[in-house]
């Protein structure tokens, strides 16, 4: 028997699972992780915190993750309170819960592509119809066109990744405000990469007061260097959090996850201490690629989209042969490289020079 013989949903038939290849190579620059592992002090603190909890693992976790949400509210600032913050297993689960509460059969969600490909996948996975709008040639958004698309389709949910994946493009607050004014439903600003933004790129968190249908999602997978922990979160009006409580599975966040995330938040000075170095490495990467005559999208994130290669697969494979794994994603002639350590980026540059010779 194989998959096709099962009575699987018609809309899942013939699909392949989402996911970047997990290949064991010396230099992995393909999933936008932070390359710096936790320090020995953090690991020791984490082990101690887990040990302290382990004796109670016969009990379910705090179902509402109240202490963790209070810590996350404190980290975000902007006067946010615990009731305005919600957490789940990665921001992907946060997005799924948003769709379960605000999307569904007969409802629609719109996004501006190229953008994060999980937005349409989670949308259709929750039986919500995906509407594809587009970005400009330079991957920015024209606020007028975005508003027109929203007025035309009247979507229940608008997705806006800022900084956007895979392009790195951040949106000015005026564009987000214009979209909020036009949108009849929820507006989700996916800020997975917010901490990497360049000076002068403010967070949509500043728009929360007065915009009860705005949701800002974040993650500890990127700048926080905790991808293995699986902890994503959001900030919104308390009523939005109440809506998500209706669809979340009881005890969705394990005691171990909550504990690890709280330890990481206590160590945030260390974890976020790598962000400046990664930003500098990113800007240097953009400059280097441009000096090579390549097209490079401006980036406010920890990755860079560059091209244009009529046969991008060949370039991707050439890098892989040289031990450097990047991501074949985004518009057809472009590739995306995650910013790694200085040594990893030197290896990337050497490999790319070898491929482009
Ligand atoms: N949003 C965006 C824009 C992303 O790029 C990613 C990770 N690739 C996520 C959300 C999900 O990350 P996680 O589930 O690890 O929080």
TrEMBL record:
- PROSITE patterns named among the record's database cross-references: AA_TRANSFER_CLASS_2
Q: Which UniProt keywords are given for this protein, alphabetically ordered?
A: Amino-acid biosynthesis, Aminotransferase, Histidine biosynthesis, Pyridoxal phosphate, Transferase
Q: Where is the Aminotransferase class I/classII large domain?
A: 27-349
- CDD domains found in the cross-reference section: AAT_like
Matching InterPro entries:
Aminotrans_II_pyridoxalP_BS (IPR001917), Aminotransferase_I/II_large (IPR004839), HisP_aminotrans (IPR005861), PyrdxlP-dep_Trfase (IPR015424), PyrdxlP-dep_Trfase_major (IPR015421), PyrdxlP-dep_Trfase_small (IPR015422)
UniProt protein name: Histidinol-phosphate aminotransferase
Instruction: Quickly give the catalysed reaction.
Output: L-histidinol phosphate + 2-oxoglutarate = 3-(imidazol-4-yl)-2-oxopropyl phosphate + L-glutamate
Decide whether keyword Protease is in the record. no
Biological process according to GO: L-histidine biosynthetic process
Q: In which pathway does it act?
A: Amino-acid biosynthesis; L-histidine biosynthesis; L-histidine from 5-phospho-alpha-D-ribose 1-diphosphate: step 7/9
Q: Which residues carry this modification: N6-(pyridoxal phosphate)lysine?
A: 222
